[in-house]
Design brief:
Elements (H helix, E strand, L loop, with lengths): L5 H5 L14 H21 L1 H15 L5 E7 L5 E7 L22 H8 L8 H6 L3 E3 L6 H8 L14 E3 L1 H4 L9 H17 L2 H17 L2
Parallel strand pairs: 3-4
Antiparallel strand pairs: 1-2
Helix pairs in contact: 3-4
Length: 218
């Protein structure tokens, strides 16, 4: 696999032919069109009933807003607010400490939302406004980005494209808490592989695999 240099692709004056395929203007346009179409379909046909139901059960289960906003790192190391359904009780560590296994902060409804990844669905609005993509490396908390970037010189290559609601790492089973070095490198390697080998059919395949895995919990 060809190694790509972080600095070159975060720069604004590189020539298109030096970029990985996913970051060339034509590819970005195609990917953006797919993002907008899929986000609009989800907002029109899924959000009206599923979001309404989720909001009601969250508010009945615990106090606080049904939504949770958290700063994440996006393309070219810019910061954006990632939108999710709230799955934890209101706590001072929500922006500082990642969710642990059997985390007591998670509500009863939150466990269900996390199991079926429903808590991530509001990110279709992030996709629609352009801060995220349907498929791409998952965005991490700002605190985690600082920590993870110190573990590998290649880490920030993840940020040459928009973060995604799902990605190659996730369909390979790498999601949730990053608990050890092996998990970290498995996710990073999957993200770099996705960036280097991207094509439109890869995005379609990952989206279908994600849907299948959520529905059948595989």
């Amino acid at each position: 696999m060809r190694k790509i240099e972080t600095g070159a692709f975060l720069a604004q004056d590189v020539h298109a032919e030096t970029l990985p395929a996913i970051n060339r203007p034509c590819a970005r346009g195609i990917k953006r069109l797919m993002d907008v179409v899929m986000a609009l379909l989800m907002i029109l046909f899924i959000a009206p009933w599923l979001f309404t139901l989720a909001i009601i059960v969250i508010m009945l289960d615990s106090k606080g807003s049904p939504f949770f906003l958290q700063k994440r790192t996006g393309r070219n190391l810019t910061t954006f607010y990632c939108l999710k359904f709230r799955t934890m009780v209101i706590n001072k560590d929500s922006h500082r400490i990642q969710v642990q296994v059997n985390d007591r902060r998670i509500t009863r409804v939150g466990k269900f939302l996390r199991k079926y990844h429903i808590d991530e669905l509001p990110q279709v609005f992030n996709v629609l406004i352009g801060s995220m993509s349907i498929v791409g490396p998952r965005p991490h908390m700002l605190r985690q980005n600082v920590q993870f970037s110190k573990l590998s010189n290649d880490y920030n290559i993840r940020h040459v494209i928009k973060p995604g609601m799902t990605g190659l790492a996730q369909v390979r089973g790498f999601h949730g808490m990053i608990g050890n070095s092996e998990d970290y490198h498995s996710r990073l390697n999957s993200d770099l592989e996705y960036i280097q080998t991207w094509n439109l059919f890869t995005d379609i395949r990952i989206f279908i695999q994600t849907t299948f895995q959520i529905l059948f919990q595989r």
